[in-house]
Design a protein that fits this description.
heterodimer; A: mainly beta; Porin; 16-stranded antiparallel beta barrel; 5 helices; B: about 150 residues; alpha/beta; D-Maltodextrin-Binding Protein, domain 2; 2 domains
């Protein structure tokens, strides 16, 4: 039954065309070879791990309902993403993780889009060291590697602006090495090679590979310090889709992108602090090395068992010559309160204010009911 | 004189009545906890730091290579509450959120939760690498894991 669920999931994903494009683009002989290679690799891994199939499969989901009061006094009710999350242990050392999001999309004939956010095969080769293949949330910053699409876990209603402005390369399809909780400081690392920005989910758009190198330590419970570096060559042309990570709607030149992220997170019994900063350089021979600085700081304090007032400040600064990110310096402040009914149901009420150098000011009040199921 | 003796007797009676009714309740909440493990893979001795690391899902494998499999009482049971407080320093709600987030990140396996200690012990007995916490060992097929040299936490 568990294995059937797993195959059913893969079948559904296949029929959404994610794999179809890739398979249709190659010849029959190559297809045959590729399928044999994948099947052979899986067989070897299963045999060498020497264990039986029929392990646990878990299906979880996350969803949200929001209400927005905008500056014109208009109140809108809306549904956000519905996230379907599956994990399955295929053998003693191999496990599978899939995350698929269903969300409203006016461009779709059905008004909804299905987006495969993560498909990860994990091979635990020794101790706390893993080899991961598939489509990942790039482990470049704390938020992206921690909360994914589980809105019930978000400390605020929305992601930080550095996500909305596409500073973070949200996804990477590729292969990575991961280490977790090593030694007394609970050191962890991720080293990933992937298709990078501009690539689709099945094919790269250029010959360059993105590199992500991230390390972190957790010296005490709830406290985590992280440092990450990301490098990629982004082909010139129109802006890229969310799957390959976009940069707004404008043409851009080919750039060599370098991102350096530093983060500190503390989620204790009473206080919560999360701060992340990215230094970004999009190098182009004719433009040089304009430096962009994006940061956010979140702070919350648990005043009662289930009640957390919080504040978040976002700051995005770009140099005028910036060739890749949409040039729109932004400062934003939000303040809100979170009521945690239990670990599967959270209500948040938030006032959001954003100042954009180019497009002016925006403010709104948003309420969210986020659940896990 | 007789009145004061009567009063003393009355106080003693009240105290004994309180002891008789209240102490079993204290025992249910705060009695010692016993760490049990499967006879395969799970070591017979751990220090407290190692135990906490294992029970927090931070260790994927035992030293001999076997998988770490967690067996916990449901957090809303008396033993489960006791384990949450004394081992994890969390409420039941916090513990479930903690593990849901780890599983969602793909960084740990979800613990196996049980409503009764008998079921938990039976699971640990038949699952290689399984470790769990109960109030006392009743199944001879599992071994007691000593923590810092003590058989109870």
């Amino acid at each position: 039954m568990n294995i059937r669920k797993c195959f059913l999931y893969c079948y559904l994903v296949y029929h959404k065309g994610i794999w179809c494009k890739f398979f249709n683009s190659i010849s029959g002989y190559l297809k045959h070879k590729l399928i044999n290679a994948i099947a052979g690799t899986l067989a070897v891994l299963l045999i060498t791990t020497g264990t039986t199939l029929g392990q646990r499969t878990q299906i979880k989901g996350f969803a949200e309902i929001v209400t927005i009061l905008d500056e014109d006094g208009k109140v809108s009710f809306g549904i956000g993403e519905q996230d379907l999350f599956i994990t399955s242990e295929l053998s003693n050392r191999i496990s599978f993780l899939g995350e698929t999001v269903f969300k409203f999309s006016p461009a779709s004939p059905t008004d909804f889009n299905v987006s495969v956010e993560r498909i990860i095969g994990k091979y635990n080769y020794t101790g706390n060291h893993n080899l991961l293949v598939g489509k990942h949330h790039t482990p470049i910053n704390y938020w992206n590697d921690t909360y994914h699409h589980g809105r019930v876990f978000f400390p605020t209603i929305t992601r930080p602006l550095l996500f909305q402005k596409d500073i973070v390369p949200i996804h990477t399809t590729g292969v990575s090495l991961q280490g977790l909780n090593l030694g007394k400081t609970r050191f962890g690392y991720d080293f990933m090679v992937g298709n990078g920005i501009g690539a689709g989910d099945s094919l790269d758009d250029n010959t360059n590979k993105s590199i992500t190198a991230a390390i972190h330590i957790k010296p005490k419970d709830g406290l985590r310090f992280g440092l990450a570096y990301y490098s990629d060559v982004i082909s010139g042309g129109p802006s890229h889709s969310h799957g390959g990570n976009g940069n707004g709607n404008h043409e851009h030149v080919r750039v060599n992108q370098h991102l350096l992220n530093a983060s500190v997170a503390y989620f204790g019994k009473k206080y919560e602090v999360l701060a992340e900063n990215i230094f970004a350089v999009n190098h182009n021979d004719s433009i040089g090395n304009p430096l962009s600085v994006v940061t956010y700081v979140y702070a919350g304090m648990r005043i009662k068992d289930k009640l957390v007032p919080y504040i978040r400040v976002d700051y995005l600064h770009f140099q005028q010559e910036e060739p890749y990110f949409a040039y729109d310096n932004t400062t934003a402040v939000l303040a809100g309160i979170r009521y945690e009914i239990n670990f599967l149901a959270v209500v948040k009420l938030e006032y959001q204010y954003e100042h954009h150098d180019l497009t002016g000011d925006v403010s709104r009040v948003v309420a969210q009911f986020a659940v896990g199921f | 004189m007789r009145e004061s003796m009567l009063r003393r007797s009355l106080y003693t009676l009240c105290f004994l009545t309180w002891m008789a009714f209240y102490c079993p309740l204290l025992n249910a909440q705060d009695s010692g906890l016993v760490v049990i493990g499967n006879s395969e893979d799970v070591p017979s001795e751990l220090d407290r730091r190692q135990l906490i690391s294992v029970l927090r899902g931070e260790q994927q494998r035992w030293k001999d290579g076997g998988n770490v499999v967690l067996a916990l009482m449901e957090p809303d049971t008396p033993i489960g509450r006791n384990v949450c407080t004394r081992v994890y320093n969390m409420s039941g709600n916090e513990l479930q959120k903690y593990f849901l987030l780890l599983v969602f990140q793909g960084k740990a396996r979800a613990p196996n939760y049980f409503d009764s200690a008998e079921e938990l012990e039976a699971f640990v007995a038949k699952t290689p690498g399984a470790i769990g916490v109960v109030s006392q060992q009743t199944n001879s097929s599992v071994k007691v894991v000593s923590v810092d040299g003590n058989s109870t936490l």
